[in-house]
Amino acid sequence: MNSNEAIPCRTDPGPPPDSLSLVVPVYNEADTVGFFVDRVRAVFQGEPEIALEFVFVNDGSTDRTLEALLSLQKSEPRLRIVDLTRNFGKEAALTAGLKAARGRVVVPIDVDLQDPPEIVLEMIGKWREGYEVVVGRRINRDADSWAKRISANCFYWVHNRISDHEMPRNAGDFRLMDRRVIAALDELPESRRFMKGLFAWVGFRTAYVDYVRPARAAGTTKFNGWKLWNFALEGVTSFSTAPLRIWTYVGAAVAGSSFAFSLFILARVLIQGRDVPGYASLMVAVTFLGGLQLIGIGVLGEYLGRTYIEAKRRPVVLIRQIYEAGS
Ligand code: UDP
Ligand code: MG
Questions:
Q1: Lower Cβ count inside 10 Å, N or C end of the chain?
Q2: What CA–CA distances, in Å, run from 19 to 97, 124, 128?
Q3: 199: nearest Cα among 126, 98, 128, 116
Q4: How is domain 19-239+315-323 classified at the CATH fold level?
Q5: CA nearest neighbour of 135 among 239, 194, 210
Q6: Which residue lies with its CA nearest to atom 8 of ligand 1?
Q7: CA–CA distances in Å: residue 220 to residues 108, 151, 202, 215
Q8: What's the distance, CA 97 to chain centroid?
């Protein structure tokens, strides 16, 4: 090659400056997708300079969600559908949606209108000021049951105590992210993805906008208590090894006190002579230690399981087809 020849510069202009992708995971939401698209259209009607795209991820719905989306696509060319082969869960669906999104800024948003689309405009305002992440923060959780509120508080308390980086309280997946943030998330190799934790882990210049979270527009929640409990376990074990380390201290404390107790028994035998009764204390010690060991093994198993799953290096989701408008 002639050394005077100019080095070819990058011709790919990248995403247009004000393009926005809304990433919407949907699971059995045939009743809500129409409402959602109408509302978003109305909100962005007055913002012609923002090039909008909808990226719906159909997370293995068993109702007529896909049909509903395909029929919406006929009148909405900005709508794209990523159809997964089965239900992979919201975290995995989000991962697939973020990967498929093409916008300069990307916002994951729930289809049930609990994340109001108007707030996205406020987020874009902050992004234009130079923030790379704009997190939607709920200022009330009245729409949630008291059990969900209490358990969410406990979760954040435990998580933020034992994890190295703080996760903002009362913030869900609803947040604006710059293309740079999306690229950073894409670099993270883990296949079990606790998105809220990953979002917090990548950092970047972050701003917040507060909003009131309304109740679900239609349909029912897809998260029951057991699912949420597993989700919380996932969150804690994804970002902290403190639960593993605790057992060193618990073990040391129990071993230390049994040593002290044995000295006490020895002294008593020496002073008062041999003492046969002791069934109760024996049983207590045996069952207590047995329980402790089982918990310890459980915690080890939790991490070993995670390592096992990561070691398989399976893809996060499988995509059956991507439907573009007009295809
Ligand atoms: N969702 C999903 N896959 C699932 C469960 C839920 O894609 O396995 C989607 C769901 O369609 C909705 C969003 O995740 O768009 C939030 O779900 P939901 O409103 O049921 O959760 P909640 O607001 O009650 O926490
Ligand atoms: Mg909801």
A1: N
A2: 16, 10, 12
A3: 98
A4: Spore Coat Polysaccharide Biosynthesis Protein SpsA; Chain A (3.90.550)
A5: 210
A6: 89
A7: 19, 20, 32, 10
A8: 13
Residues 165, 201 contacting (CB under 8 angstroms):
yes
User: pLDDT tens digits, residue range 156-191?
Assistant: 888 788 777 777 777 888 999 999 999 998 888 777
Strands (DSSP E) along 197-290, which ranges?
206-212
Q: What is the pLDDT of residues 218-246, one digit of tens each?
A: 777 777 778 878 878 887 777 777 777 77
Residue 297 phi, psi (nearest 5): -65, -40
Render pLDDT for 131-153 as a digit per residue (tens, 0 to 9): 999 999 888 766 677 777 888 88
Q: Which residues line ligand 1 (CB under 6 A)?
A: 25-27, 29, 59, 87, 89-90, 93, 110-112, 114, 216, 221-223
The alpha carbon of 49 and the centre of ligand 2 are apart by a number of angstroms equal to 29
pTM over 0.70: yes
Residue type for 116, please? P
**pLDDT at residue 57, as a whole number:** 96
